[in-house]
Amino acid sequence: MSPSSNPSVAFQGELGAFSEMAARTYFHEGVTVVPLPGFPQIFQAVENKTCTHCIVPIENSLMGSIHENYDLLLKHNLQIVGELKLRIVHNLIVNPGTRLEDIRHIFSQPPALAQCSEFIRSLGHAEAVVDYDTAGAVKRVKKTGARDIAAIASAQAAVDYDLDILREGIENNHQNFTRFLVVARQAVEVNSEDPAKTSIVFTMENVPGALFKSLGAFALRDIDLLKIESRPLDRRPWEYTFYLDFEGHLGQDRCAQAVEHLKQLVSFLKILGSYKQGETAEGKARKKRMDP
Amino acid sequence: MSPSSNPSVAFQGELGAFSEMAARTYFHEGVTVVPLPGFPQIFQAVENKTCTHCIVPIENSLMGSIHENYDLLLKHNLQIVGELKLRIVHNLIVNPGTRLEDIRHIFSQPPALAQCSEFIRSLGHAEAVVDYDTAGAVKRVKKTGARDIAAIASAQAAVDYDLDILREGIENNHQNFTRFLVVARQAVEVNSEDPAKTSIVFTMENVPGALFKSLGAFALRDIDLLKIESRPLDRRPWEYTFYLDFEGHLGQDRCAQAVEHLKQLVSFLKILGSYKQGETAEGKARKKRMDP
User: Fold this and answer.
1) Is B113 in contact with A130 (Cβ distance < 8 A)?
2) What 8-state DSSP symbol labels residue A145?
3) Strand partners, A162
4) Closest chain B residue to A248 measured between Cα atoms?
5) Contact A208 B224 (CB under 8 A)
6) Tens of pLDDT along A12-67?
7) Is A177 a catalytic residue?
8) Which positions in chain A touch B129 (Cβ < 8 Å)?
9) How far A114 CA sits from the closest chain B CA (Å)?
10) A41, A201, B16, B134: least surrounded by Cβ within 10 Å?
């Protein structure tokens, strides 16, 4: 699946973040992962050639689209070259010897704490404390060596920091998937046997029938749509931004023609990339689990 | 704006939550607000006639749609009767006499902590701690009386708990709006002079051109679309759920006809309600502010 021989992949967060798990799952062996503090930095790392790729969470099945990363895709002159849907499995990670009943503080990132709220509440004796990163929380647990604290993070984080998973899959809703995009400087050619996807963003005036006409560019060519979302823009209420994914790639005439047709109808259009449609994966980390 | 004379409005959270501020801003004087712990409970309170209305956050300009509340609108046999877009202004709320440099812990709900991350980081000496509610965090600050802690919450919460606002508008991005829906048992008649909106949810098979045909029901009648979003459904990938808002109300023939037309094209359709399009508001709370 890896489009380059020695990929170096920037991701947001610390070693052990779900994004690292996504990078390792997508690229398999031989990938170098580069943790960076923020999303802007991972795009910059690809643009300035520090890394060959970055991996970007774009949409979560419970929480919707991550608008910030759509904004970064718009800002940078990069291309989406791949996709992966990762099931988000949260784990309670502790120093060896920690017992559930002794845990007083549980550290993690706000969304992870929210997604495990039922488990935390069920303990009764543990307080949730914010960290800026799930894996950063694991790092903190490791550093203190304390046996009355825990972190919520990916199984990858337990492996990276050599700690124990005390409870696995503690998220409220197990149907929790994050879609990651793999971004690079150059567009890739999509293998003609693979199911392909193209992502675009466009803006148009808010007039009746405008969106209908736009989608006609695809419907008239029997091109299937995979995602559509209008972005609420409070600053420019007379204009709409749309995120659209459609089936196929721009190497196919009908897709290239549909985009040319759409350009005639809209005020702005940017092609974010054509790529192989991503698989849904559980994530790959060597898992450690304590006996009950 | 209030459609009933003595509205009692259920909202999720503690007194002082942004939802309370939304309820007070929408209904003006004479409203009774009823805080309840979860979103399912506020829908139930309307269904079992404990309350006349509930007020529901449905979409945030930074974070996208709140899928959980779309699910509850689908589950319950209630109607959207109104809308309000509230600008989310976060405040640092403290016990009187607290100085910025003494604050060691800042309590709030995960999204609020994330939205104020730059301010918290800029302090350097304060740790963010999760509470299950912004207003609950204010309650905690009040209860302890401590002068080394603070909460992040609405100005309404400072009023409700009679505490001081030490810093106002500490959110990273001031263009942060939450759209709230007002929900009741019965549909309301929309005043013909008012700009109206109708919200529907529908499901259809994933075949090329299906969405285009569906939107034709509106485009052929010159009905403007105000929001469209496809919901990622990992469990039923062959089917799509769409959230759609269009201009107009079902008392208008062309709107009623468009929905009848759409019903012939889709596998499932639910009308969530017709209502007056909401204003954008700053929120109304009596504000207290310390002199610098």
Assistant:
1) yes
2) -
3) none
4) B208
5) yes
6) 988 888 999 999 999 987 899 999 988 999 999 999 999 999 999 998 877 778 88
7) no
8) 127-130
9) 7
10) A41
Q: Which of A37, A40, A45, A31 is nearest to A17 (CA)?
A: A37
CA distances A47 to A53, A76, A186, A189, B7, Å, are: 9, 8, 10, 20, 55
Asked if the ipTM is above 0.90, the reply is no
DSSP character string of A205-260: E--TTHHHHHHHHHHTTTPPEEEEEEEP-SS-TTEEEEEEEEES-TTSHHHHHHHH
Range list of β-strands (E), chain A: 8-12, 32-36, 53-60, 64-65, 79-87, 91-94, 105-108, 127-130, 149-153, 164-168, 177-184, 196-205, 225-231, 239-247, 268-276, 280-281
Exposed, middle or buried: residue A30 (CB in 10 Å: 0-12, 13-18, 19+)?
exposed
Tens digits of residue pLDDT in B148-198: 999 999 998 999 999 999 999 999 888 888 999 999 999 988 888 899 999
The residues, ordered by sequence, that sit 6+ positions from B202 with a Cβ below 8 Å of its Cβ are B214, B241, B242, B244, B262, B266, B268, B269, B270
Tell me which residue in A85, A209, A234 faces B177 most closely, judged by beta carbons. Answer: A234
> How many H-runs (helices) and E-runs (strands) does chain A carry?
9, 16
Kindly determine whether residue A234 and residue B114, on different chains, have CB atoms separated by under 8 Å.
no
Q: Of the listed A11, A107, A119, A180, which one is catalytic?
A: A180
Is A180 a residue of the active site? yes
Q: Do B234 and A177 touch (CB under 8 A)?
A: yes
What sections of chain B are H helices per DSSP?
18-27, 39-47, 67-75, 110-115, 117-123, 134-144, 155-161, 210-219, 253-263
Tokens at B3, concatenated? 């459609």
Q: Are strands A196-205 and A149-153 parallel, antiparallel or unpaired?
A: unpaired
- A97 φψ region: left (φ > 0), alpha (ψ -120 to 50), beta (else): left
d(CA A72, CA B176): 18
Retrieve residue B85's tokens. 């877009």
Answer for the pair A58, A181: CB distance below 8 angstroms, yes or no: yes
